[in-house]
Amino acid sequence: MSRPLQPIPVDLTGKRVVVTGASAGIGHEAALELARLGADVTVVARSAAKAAATIDALVARGAARVRLAGEHADLGRLAEVRALGDRLATSHPRLDVLINNAGCYPGQRVITAEGLEEAWVTNVLAYEALTTRLHDSVRAARGRIVYTASTMAGDLDVDDLDWARRGWNGIKAYRQSKQANRMLAWAWARRLEGSGATINVAHPGGVRTNIAHRQRGLWGVLNRLAFLTQRSPRMGGDVLVWLAASPEVVGSAGFYKDRLAIPCQWRDDVDAQERLWALCQQQLGVR
Ligand SMILES: NC(=O)c1ccc[n+]([C@@H]2O[C@H](COP(=O)([O-])OP(=O)(O)OC[C@H]3O[C@@H](n4cnc5c(N)ncnc54)[C@H](OP(=O)(O)O)[C@@H]3O)[C@@H](O)[C@H]2O)c1
Question: Cα(244) to centroid of ligand 1, in Å?
């Protein structure tokens, strides 16, 4: 499933970009393309070793080493995400692009040492922690925030985010997190209004990545069979690159696949978005 990708006519020399989940899959391809377009890209990976390996892999594929920096954090641990946010805020008082992309699709219900369900903290609270800490830097650059979400979304229950009451199910936990990504982006868009900074949300399509590698049994097999019909990570990452870099993107609060706006069924419920935003800030311990 491939279509030719139109080049994005932009020179990002001097632009500073942070990409989470850059060690693999969609984020890796987006980081590569943004570096090729000239941006100074900070790749965020799970560990220092993975960040170094990511830089080596990107350089081997044509990115210039001088334009790459590595950062690391386990994004499933809020303490590490907070420390990462502090380091990035210091190193990037102006940030042109923040791409919150790292995500997981757990194979079992994991409650972290911090008492949070893994998909929720990695896929949602890590995005929120970084956006909360870095939005001033993005405002300073009149820059762009991109959230990687999905049309595989739904099942959000703010009274049972950690699935203590409902039976845990990997698909539902993933869907819940991806619904929240969109609702929270719309809440951030209101906060960024008039600042010159924007936030948009990407759906990369069904992409041949390792996201489902923890799924077991028949479901694991089906996920691997889906590779037959899925698009390449390069193709999936294109919408992130376009949202991050293209002069065609002028607005905020859009949901895009293949560089085209697509509908979001949670767009109009502002009260629910604001309640969720406040709840996440509370979980992050932000006053
Ligand atoms: N693949 C699809 O069909 C699809 C469709 C729609 C949306 N998406 C979204 O696209 C995004 C990227 O996923 P992908 O498909 O590219 O999957 P992937 O190949 O598994 O990449 C996920 C990235 O996130 C990182 N990550 C996960 N948990 C982390 C943690 N606790 N700490 C630090 N880094 C962590 C991974 O690092 P490690 O390698 O160290 O785990 C990896 O770099 C996700 O937000 C996903 O929800 C994917």
Answer: 18
